[in-house]
From TrEMBL:
The lineage of its organism: Bacteria, Pseudomonadati, Bacteroidota, Cytophagia, Cytophagales. Keywords: Signal. It comes from Xanthocytophaga flava. Residues 1-25 form the signal peptide. Residues 12-160 form the Outer membrane protein beta-barrel domain. This is Outer membrane beta-barrel protein. InterPro entries: Beta-barrel_OMP, OMP/PagP_B-barrel.
Amino acid sequence: MKTNYVIGWILLLTSFGMTSLGAYAQESKPGLVLNIGLTNGYNLTSGNSAVKNYYSIGGRINLIFNDKWFVGYTQNGSIVPGNLVENADFEKSRIYEYALSGGRKWNLGSQTYLRGNLNAGISEFKVKTDSGSMWDEDFSDSSTSYLAGAETAIGFKLNKYLAIEAGMYYRRYFKNDQLMIATGDLNSLGVTLSLAGSLGLSK
């Protein structure tokens, strides 16, 4: 008798679960979605790097196709008010990154998803060599290098339009003889927290 009772509950719960999954699967999703995100990051450089660990802030804009594949553009910049480089001859320095990105999204459930993408672009290292206000953005010199990176994040949907994401990434920079510091000093592993908004552009 108890066995039949347990089996009955198992069948009932299984039926309920399958019904819920079916309803989620049948939910209409736009074929094209505009996704815009604001990102806060913390960048960890290697122990022997001349560049200190630093915070960054940035944004991204993606087009998502069929709730799976996406392409887009990302931009980030360091927000340390002083100098990123130890024992440097300049007053302050900044790192800015501009990259194209592409990747895939996997829905883990009705509220959660996993995102993975690759980035490729350029990095700009700016310095100010003369004295002046710490917040004066009139940098006197800059140099660029190429970058490539990979990122993964898990997202939780707050509602139909907004989601929060927690992720991590790795960025590697390629040699440029004109760069004012060693290219390898810029390589970093980072963690991010993002707020993303989505808007359907098609049915």
